[in-house]
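Here is one chain, start to finish.
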Amino acid sequence: MSPDRRIVQLFSQEKLDEFRSMPAKARLQWLAQANALIRRVSGAKPRERPDSPGDAQRPLR
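Its structure:
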């Protein structure tokens, strides 16, 4: 995406409260779906993920 182009989404207080009340697993699923949509629209490539959850906690060298 070019630097002069931004995606902005506004949410009502009601939607924010609804999101806060969702279980953590449902919030993560919602975020993953939103990120997939943004990548499709913007043409951005997904970031690489660590091979295992333990890799995410290792310090960068």
